[in-house]
Structure formats: C-alpha cells, structure tokens
Hints:
- The protein is an alpha+beta fold.
- It has one domain: Thrombin, subunit H (Beta Barrel), CATH 2.40.10.
- It has helices at residues 31-34, 127-144, and strands at residues 11-21, 50-58, 62-66, 75-82, 86-98, 102-106, 109-114, 117-124.
- The strands form two sheets. Strands 1-2-3-8-5-4 form a six-stranded antiparallel β-barrel. It has a two-stranded antiparallel ribbon with strand order 6-7.
- The protein starts with 10 loop residues before the first strand and ends with a helix.
Amino acid sequence: xxxxxxxxxxxxxxxxxxxxxxxxxxxxxxxxxxxxxxxxxxxxxxxxxxxxxxxxxxxxxxxxxxxxxxxxxxxxxxxxxxxxxxxxxxxxxxxxxxxxxxxxxxxxxxxxxxxxxxxxxxxxxxxxxxxxxxxxxxxxxxxxx
Length: 145
C-alpha cells in the first residue's frame, strides 16, 4: 500500500449492515451564543428510512457501505456484527457517495469496478468494536505485508 494516503488502514470485508438515517436533535442556544454559533446540520431527507447494505471497506475511522446511497451529510445509525464482538451499533456521517457503479480503466489490466454506495465517518462506535477492527486490519496487513 505504498500509495495509501488515508489516515487509517482498512480492509475489505463483506458484512451485512442495516443503516438508518437519524438526523440530529435540535440545538437550543442562549441568544448571545446563537448570534455567533455555526455548525453543520445533518440532512433530514429520508430521515427514519432504513436501507440494507453491505459493509465493504472498514477502518477504525469509518467504512464504505455498498447499497442505495443516502444524501450527503446524513447522520446515520448502523447495525452490523463483528467476529469476537457480536452485534455493533454505531453512529456516523455520510461524507461522500457514489450514485451508481462505474468502471475505471487500467493499463493492460481489467478495469476496476467501483460500486455505488457511501462513505461513513464514525461519530460513535463502541470501544471494543474499534479495537476489534484495529486487530482485524493489523492482522490482515501482517499477512499481506
């Protein structure tokens, strides 16, 4: 992975996942603070909807989920299972998406197929799940490296 520029190593997996758009709670601020306060607000489009997908690319910081892409800046609750941990519930933000599959040609080789779906940055994930993901990634890179 000489060209890897991401902050966290990741591995390819194929884990079923349920994702629900949850939005965010309204924020009540003091009038003085409200005048000077700015924040990114979650998309409320599709709030309450659930999609079934597949966790495909996993790191301690986030994941790529193959499936029907939700809107950018959706705040989502996710449920999936990990070996050695069991069921995991996490919350994250959709920071990028691909609205359809596409092929990227490569010189003298088969094209790479990029699947539709979205990238999630974990906001909250249980510590034991983060440790399990770190262990999975570390072991995979020891074997391949």
